[in-house]
Design a protein that fits this description.
Layout: H1 2-24, H2 31-38, E1 43-48, E2 51-56, E3 62-63, H3 70-85, E4 86-89, E5 92-96, E6 102-107, H4 111-121
Antiparallel strand pairs: 1-2, 2-3, 4-5, 5-6
Length: about 120
C-alpha cells in the first residue's frame, strides 16, 4: 500500500510539472518569417541581472513581467502590434508604418508560413 501511495504521488507531481511547463512555453513559430517580421517590431528584450525587460522603442516604456509570464507577454505585444501593422498581399507580408505607408515587404515562401502569420497575428 505504501509503495502504491508513493508511486501515485510521484506520478501526480510528474504530470503537474509537465502541465505547468507546457503552459509556460511560448507558442510555436515559423522561425524564418517570425525573425524577419520581428526586426520591425517596436519591442526589444533587454537582459539584466534582475531578469528580462520588454522595452517599447517608440516611447521607451519598460515592462518587467515575471519569468513565467515573460514569453506570453512578448507574444501578446507582438500580436497586438501585428494586427495594426501587418497585412498579407499575394505572397508577401506588408509591414506598415504609423501612417499606413509600406515600410517593408517580406516574401512568404511556404503555406506553413502564411498559416502562421494568419494564426499568430490574427490577420
Amino acid at each position: 500500500m505504501k509503495k502504491a501511495l508513493i508511486f501515485g504521488f510521484f506520478t501526480a507531481f510528474l504530470i503537474l510539472g509537465m502541465l505547468s511547463m507546457k503552459r509556460a512555453m511560448p507558442e510555436a513559430k515559423e522561425n524564418r518569417i517570425y525573425a524577419a517580421i520581428k526586426v520591425y517590431s517596436p519591442y526589444i528584450v533587454e537582459k539584466k541581472v534582475g531578469g528580462l525587460t520588454i522595452i517599447d522603442k517608440r516611447n521607451g516604456e519598460k515592462e518587467s513581467p515575471s519569468s513565467q509570464e515573460f514569453f506570453h507577454r512578448v507574444d501578446e505585444l507582438d500580436k497586438k502590434w501585428g494586427k495594426e501593422h501587418l497585412s498579407i498581399e499575394n505572397n508577401e507580408v506588408l509591414i506598415l508604418g504609423e501612417n499606413n505607408q509600406t515600410v517593408a515587404r517580406i516574401f512568404i515562401e511556404t503555406e506553413k508560413e502564411r498559416d502562421f502569420v494568419k494564426r499568430f497575428y490574427g490577420l
